[in-house]
Amino acid sequence: MKDTIIEKMYELSRKPYQKYFKKNEPWQIDKTKLMDYPEDSLGFGLGNFLYKNHFDIQPKLEDHDVIHVLTNTGTSVLEEIGMQYYLLGNGKRSLYLFLVTLSGILFYPTKINYFFKEYKKGRQALPFHYIDFSKMLFMPIHSIKETFKI
Predict the structure, then answer these.
(1) Which of 18, 37, 106, 127 shows a CA-CA span of 20 to 30 A to 28?
(2) How far apart, in whole angstroms, are the C-alpha atoms of residue 33 and residue 128?
(3) For residue 24, how many other CB atoms are within 10 A of its CB?
(4) For the ranges 7-16, 46-55, 100-109, which has the lowest average pLDDT?
(5) Residue 31: left (phi > 0), alpha (psi -120 to 50), or beta?
(6) 81-117 CB burial, b ≥16 within 10 A, e <16
(7) Which of 72, 98, 74 has the alpha carbon at shortest distance from 84?
């Protein structure tokens, strides 16, 4: 039940967030083109993630799925919240992030240890939350992970 509530909150907030808060330009690529990148590249990894989860690219929110790929984070509601704690630990600050992390505490108080563990993992990595990943699609995933200690 609580997963459904959080998913509905996300769906209601996604479009206004994309339109009014995300200032970056949408990437000019679709997921079929991502599969043409070299197999070890970020582009291919992103395309594979999108296909595996039956997702499409969401304009201006592409970096979110890249973070899933780089951190090996799943897509359940709990894992999505955990990823926001990871990003909080990595230095990201936004109203949206604070709302998601707060909802995690309110809806999943018994998972606070999981959230804290994700936060600590984000602190251990070098800051990467602000990077324009559209320029890194040809780079090998393992190189990006090694460089930023992800």
Answers:
(1) 127
(2) 24
(3) 12
(4) 7-16
(5) alpha
(6) bbbbbbbbbbebeeeebeebbebbeebbeebeebbee
(7) 98
Phi, psi angles (nearest 5°) of residue 139: -70, 145
Of the candidates 81, 62, 67, the one whose C-alpha atom is nearest the C-alpha of residue 7 is 81
The first and second tokens of residue 10, run together, are 């996300």
Residue pLDDT, tens place only, 80-131: 999 999 999 999 998 889 989 999 999 999 999 999 999 999 999 999 999 9
Instruction: Determine the pLDDT at residue 15.
Output: 64
pLDDT above 80 for 5: no
- C-alpha torsion angle, residues 136, 142, 146, 150 (rounded to 10): 90
What is the Cα–Cα distance from 69 to 48, expressed in whole angstroms?
9
